[in-house]
Amino acid sequence: MRVFGTMVALHGTRELSLGAPRHRALLGLLVVRLNQVVPVPQLIEELWGGRPPRRPTAALHTYICHLRRALSFGARPGGPSMLVRHQAPGYVLALDPDEVDAHRFERLVIQARRDIAVQDYRVAQDRLGAALALWRGVPYLELVDYAPMAEESARLEQARLTAVELHAETSLALGENDAVVARLHPEAQRYPTRECLIAYLMTGLYRLGRQADALRLFERTRAHLAEELGVDAGAELQRIHAAILRQELPFGDRAATRVEVTAGEDRADAAASRQAEHPTGGGHEDVVTCGTRSARSALSDERAEPGAVAAVPHTTGVPHSAGVPNSAGVPNSAGVPHPLTSLPFVGRTYELAVLGAWADAALSGEGGLAAVTGQPGIGKTELTMEVTRGAREAGHEVIGVSCRGKDGPAYGVWARILRQLSHTRPEAFRMVSARYSRLLGGLLSDVPSGAVEDVQPPLQAPFLVEDAVCAILVALARQKPFLLVLDDLQSADYSSLNLLHLLTCRLPEVPLGVLVTSADPRPASESTPQTALDHLLGSARTLTLRLGGLSEQAVAALVATHVDADVDAEATLALHKRSGGSPYALRRLLSLA
Ligand SMILES: Nc1ncnc2c1ncn2[C@@H]1O[C@H](COP(=O)(O)OP(=O)(O)OP(=O)(O)O)[C@@H](O)[C@H]1O
Ligand SMILES: [Mg+2]
């Protein structure tokens, strides 16, 4: 049986004649409930709606006889087909599910999901390709006027989208970024609010060096979500957006080599050997998350598994639609969304309250600089993301960049910020920056690959350049307040730090907040002069929070997200002590357990 496109019953290669539309509808009603008894009253209701014939049971019987004849290949001429059976209180179509294309499709998708879970991407991709090749048009195309077929058709369409997304996931894992973009582009136009799909497409675009397209896509999606559903982009999509802004998704070629590493490397062993390399948890790899991992990991859990490939998750927490297989591979007919695998944020109540209040004040006109410092892996980046999530949810724009690239060109950090603002507010940006275009030169140029190395440092006197950038930012903030997030400020080039210093002097009356993360500043001493960074972080104008370890309670909460069973207080205490409350160390301990 084929139900993709118009319904067709085949015996071998011979197409069977199914007769008039209502005869076909009866078959459709039975296929939808394959191997289940459909009661007679239900069949009558679904077949004729509120306008049944005068003797409905007899009429139904006639239709059943017709159907049996149509399907009676191989049976005794005139005898009943073994396929359509009477079984009180109704009828059942008894058929091996594999004989129906839609069932074969779903089985392949479920198997592919299992392959992905064990990182067998090539096999998964082949299966998904085979599943999608079965798709030959809208399921039950000519029968969608009947409610059960319309519902099933919609459910199958959602399952198709899931298959497309999983296929994209395998392609990303295999470094086939072109294929991802080609396949997802038309889907994203049809389903502009399907966040998981958009997330994969953004990743593919970014990896092809089309960062600007990826950012535009995000903004378009956000606008669609706001218009159609009145909601903001989901947290996971925002995290991927932030990862792109911070240029922390690796590009395809690197990713492709990483897959091979992952495939042959046991995860626990790999983590253990890296632990030996970086006992304190320092040393960033680029993004690592794959398949079932969360987008939160895409931004911040990368160090644990540098062997894995950058991709976006299929269980992202992005809402999936009804009827798609869940992570256990079981079709989710109740339409319950996928279980979320994103890792929850725990603790930091005090810091969140302080920084939340700071952000509110900044966005309402009391701009300023706030800094989160602490040892590597203590949770600085994660905390800032939690803070900015609140701001985004309140409808504010947040521009984030990573400051890595100390040896890059002067003002590299600000070049990236300007570039992002030129994408998110093209009109306003053009207006306010026009008069500085000669002065700022290369800093304002749009570099499609997003490579900082391509930015030409301006030739003019530093103060003029810094003044111009501050003027642009202040003018844009006065039009619409925003937050800037500068991650790993300790890695910023010297000129960028100077510019930040100048900006902070201008902020007090401007609705612009700058939130930075940084390694701890060096304590002032007579022998070592303070650096520009030390000055900034130590300034009385800066709100500096030094992060310590998580509380015991927060550690318990984090442990609970990793371990299904109850963990007793003693074990939690031991983990707290061993990790020093560092969420990174804790995660690593848990993953090795
Ligand atoms: N409050 C938290 N709740 C749950 N997980 C957290 C929390 N804080 C941090 N983590 C996790 O701990 C890990 C390290 O966090 P993060 O990257 O924010 O540290 P960091 O201080 O920014 O490190 P670095 O100095 O290397 O930049 C990440 O995997 C992150 O998801
Ligand atoms: Mg960090």
TrEMBL record:
Belongs to the AfsR/DnrI/RedD regulatory family. Residues 264-288 are annotated as: Disordered. Gene3D superfamilies: P-loop containing nucleotide triphosphate hydrolases (3.40.50.300), Tetratricopeptide repeat domain (1.25.40.10), Winged helix-like DNA-binding domain superfamily/Winged helix DNA-binding domain (1.10.10.10). Residues 1-95 form the OmpR/PhoB-type domain. It comes from Streptomyces antimycoticus. Transmembrane segments: none annotated. It comes from the Bacteria. Pfam families: AAA_16 (PF13191), BTAD (PF03704), Trans_reg_C (PF00486). GO terms for biological process: phosphorelay signal transduction system; regulation of DNA-templated transcription. InterPro entries: AAA+_ATPase, AAA_16, AfsR-DnrI-RedD_regulator, BTAD, OmpR/PhoB-type_DNA-bd, P-loop_NTPase, Sig_transdc_resp-reg_C-effctor, TPR-like_helical_dom_sf. Keywords: DNA-binding, Transcription, Transcription regulation, Two-component regulatory system. PROSITE patterns: OMPR_PHOB (PS51755). This is OmpR/PhoB-type domain-containing protein.
